[in-house]
TrEMBL record:
InterPro entries: Acyl_CoA_acyltransferase, GNAT_dom. It comes from Candidatus Roizmanbacteria bacterium GW2011_GWA2_32_13. CDD domains: NAT_SF. Pfam families: Acetyltransf_1. One of its GO terms (molecular function) is acyltransferase activity, transferring groups other than amino-acyl groups. This is N-acetyltransferase domain-containing protein.
Amino acid sequence: MLFAKTDKNKIIGFITLKLIGGKCLIDLIAVNPKYQNKGVGTLLISKAIKSFSDYKITVGTEAENIKAVNFYLKNNFKIVDYYLIFHRHN
């Protein structure tokens, strides 16, 4: 599922969601830098919550991404787990 926010017929932000095992996962959310801190991300999160109110909505992000962590906390998400994922780069 994809929701987008537009301004003057241009996409300024979007959110993608996946339904997995009875849960709704926020897969990706992005807002054009010119529109950040203006409520666009919160509007997209609110649309997702309203549209998938029958599902538990989850999201994952890097702990070092303080801006994203604070955004989700501001939008009433809670940290329920913390784990490490290792990537090998060639």
